[in-house]
Specification:
13 helices
Length: 333
């Protein structure tokens, strides 16, 4: 989820009002229809990435009985790191200490997010795990907004979580819910440091290096849990498939999309992940959701979309600039 916008703050991957303003002005200038058509390309990239990562998570759940959650994470991150390093061939020299600190923090957040999420996925349904996880980026959106209205979205999200818990999470594995919430915290950190990494490293170099860090941190955990099971050919094959579906393909697609798509639009689309995860869980894992679960997921999605859209403040001088554009297009009398 790298975001290369040089002027953006750490929360840029959740809200970038200035980017949205640029699109508004573009829509009022000649040739805007062509630009709108080009804007569909990064949107398609984001949708493809979300589908890939969630169906990859469903395949990972099928692999867990053979390799365990930590073993699956190790295979996923190790294979992804090898592929990205071979394809990207990132330059190792010429980076400052701050650059390396940023990419290491990105890798730690990535590794923590994956390990915690897979522990959750081992215990609770995929759609519910992603719904709880998405609370991390939602909280980041609310903080970025600094508006009273954002608290209403937070309350809506908490109502959805309460529905999922059935009044106390009695029907959910408490450890699974805790792991999913922890993964959400790491996801928020992932957004912050992926944005910084995208500004400091060209192309996907930072992503490749961060993936190596995440794989190195996960390797001891996976070996301790699964040992020689990780070397079984079928397990290796499925692990490689999970790596391509859940890491290499979606991360690369999202990186490409964020170089041409406003981060606020990206964040709104990412809010749909719980619904897509529930769909993947149903088709691949046979995890049907109750009406209450579906309503809870809808509440969290609605809160996420509302919070992200609420982070866009009015642009100073925006109307004046639009009047100038219209004046310039008006024939002289």
């Amino acid at each position: 989820m790298n975001h290369p916008r040089s002027a953006a703050e750490p929360v840029a991957a959740v809200a970038a009002p200035e980017a949205a303003g640029v699109l508004e002005e573009a829509a009022e200038t000649p040739g805007a229809s062509g630009r709108r058509g080009a804007a569909l390309v990064p949107i398609a990239l984001v949708v493809g990435g979300v589908l890939s990562v969630q169906f990859g998570s469903a395949v990972a759940a099928l692999l867990m009985p053979k390799a365990g959650p930590l073993g699956v994470v190790t295979l996923r991150l190790a294979v992804a790191a090898l592929v990205l390093m071979a394809v990207c061939r990132p330059r190792l020299r010429g980076h400052s200490r701050a650059d390396w600190g940023t990419v290491v923090a990105f890798g730690v957040a990535m590794g923590g997010m994956n390990n915690l999420f897979y522990e959750a996925l081992h215990r609770i349904p995929l759609g519910i795990a992603v719904t709880l996880e998405v609370l991390g980026p939602l909280a980041l959106s609310v903080i970025a907004s600094r508006r009273l209205a954002s608290l209403l979205w937070a309350v809506l999200a908490l109502a959805g979580v309460a529905l999922l818990g059935g009044g106390g999470f009695d029907r959910l594995d408490p450890a699974g819910a805790a792991f999913a919430l922890g993964a959400g915290v790491m996801w928020a950190l992932y957004i912050v440091f992926s944005a910084r990494t995208g500004r400091r490293f060209p192309q996907a170099d930072g992503l490749a290096l961060a993936m190596v860090v995440a794989a190195a941190l996960s390797l001891p955990l996976g070996v301790l849990e699964s040992g020689s099971k990780l070397l079984v050919p079928t397990t290796l094959g499925l692990g490689a498939a999970v790596a391509l579906l859940s890491s290499v393909l979606p991360y690369t697609l999202e990186l490409m999309a964020l170089r041409r798509l406003p981060a606020s639009t990206f964040a709104v689309m990412m809010s749909l992940e719980p619904a897509i995860a529930a769909m993947a869980g149903f088709f691949i894992l046979g995890q049907a959701l109750s009406t209450t679960d579906a309503l809870a997921i809808a509440l969290v999605i609605g809160a996420s979309v509302g919070a992200v859209r609420g982070t866009r403040p009015a642009r100073p001088g925006g109307r004046a600039r639009r009047r100038e554009v219209r004046k310039a297009r008006t024939p002289a009398e």
